[in-house]
Amino acid sequence: MKNKSKASKTSEERRESLAKLLQEQGLKIYNELDRGEFPKFSVPSRSVSNIVYDKKLRQYILGNTASIRSARNMSQLRSFTQLIWLAFFANKLVQEKKSSTLRDIYYSSQAFSIDFEDQPESDNIIVDLEAVLARPREDLHIFPEERSSVFGDLTIEYTVPGYEGKRTNLSDHPDGYLIGPSLSSAELVDTNAELVIAIEKGGLFTRFVEEKVDKKFKAIIVDTAGQAPRSTRYLLKRLHEEMSLPVVILTDGDVYGEHIAMVIKSGSANAAHLRELTVPDAKWIGVWATDIEKYKLPTIPMTESDIKRIYDLQKDPRYQEGMWKKELEVFLKLKRKAELEAFSKYGLTNITDKYLPEKLEIAKSL
């Protein structure tokens, strides 16, 4: 049984640390006003030119370029005010231990006469605040609507108000547990699992639960629901670091599946301002382009969009060597793709009885 690492921060420690960051930002603005200065924020630039791939960290990060958003500049006054209000509102959420959705934030702003043209503008200011604090919105108790799920032998202890100290095991519900705010902030207590399997498809997640993959392979199963939401990527990182569990990734056999795996490993350009969402040692075990031929899977033709995506990724430094480069080249050669469900051609349990054991064995050498 693996117990939670004592070196990891507790939910309360993270909350206190974030509250201190927000208070420091507020105090800075107060002091500037007290000195008769125009208050300002230094906002790290999220432009393409300031996003670089760090080979040591094995993820995208922001460079050193930042812009000053000041109350002095009339053209910046609107976004400056929006950022001030969001920091205030986030501090309220953190202090009161309440959560909100991206949509909630957009509508809540109207109660304070803060003018957002639409939700995308509101979402963009939230990312600005993340960049200023270098902390993800989930730490601010702000979550998107999308959810993925988790199932397996993992005991968690809730920290949300009204449930503090209550424990549950994530194998107790046959449909798995949604990776929502309460689970994201829970303490990971102990597990008998030896592996985490992240899988792209909800249908296959259900199949894996039905076929008792968690018991057969001593695994925690995570449905990423396509491109993994950030709360899911954060949970995968916690499982890897706090519980010392290796992470393997199963996706459809297409260029988008390959990129879903890469984002779990090394992040996305859109989240280059964050450092807590990657599992650099995670292993993509399929479906590879070479698996399509090896297992004689039913395929469908690639679209022009698929092919363009391959060319785009070939320019990405993460796809310049090893299996990542090779599999893109094979996809481009085949110009065909296969879904995880394609294994059903050989029987409903073929993917769990034959393919998965073979790929887990291969993973040991990756």
- The CATH topology of the largest domain comes to Dna Topoisomerase Vi A Subunit, Chain: A, domain 2
Query: With helices defined by DSSP (H or I, 4 residues minimum), what is the helix count?
Result: 13
Largest beta sheet: what is the strand line-up? Answer: 11-8-14-13-15-16
The overall number of domains is: 2
Mean pLDDT across residues:
93
The level 1 CATH classification of the largest domain is Alpha Beta
Share of residues in strands: 15-25%
Shape: globular
Termini gap: 26 Å
What is the SS-derived class? alpha/beta
Identify low-pLDDT runs.
none
* Helix percentage range: 40-55%
Described by strand count, sense and barrel closure, the largest sheet is: 6 strands, mixed
Tell me which CATH architecture of the largest domain applies here: 3-Layer(aba) Sandwich
**Rg calculated over all Cα atoms:** 22 Å
Extended strand count: 18
Give a quick precis of the structure.
By secondary structure, the chain is of the alpha/beta class. The protein has helices spanning about 10-35, 75-95, 100-110, 120-135, 180-185, 200-210, 215, 230-240, 255-265, 290-295, 305-315, 320-335, 350-365, and strands spanning about 1-5, 40-45, 50-55, 60, 65-70, 100, 140-145, 150, 155, 165-170, 175-180, 185-190, 195-200, 220-225, 245-250, 285, 300, 335.
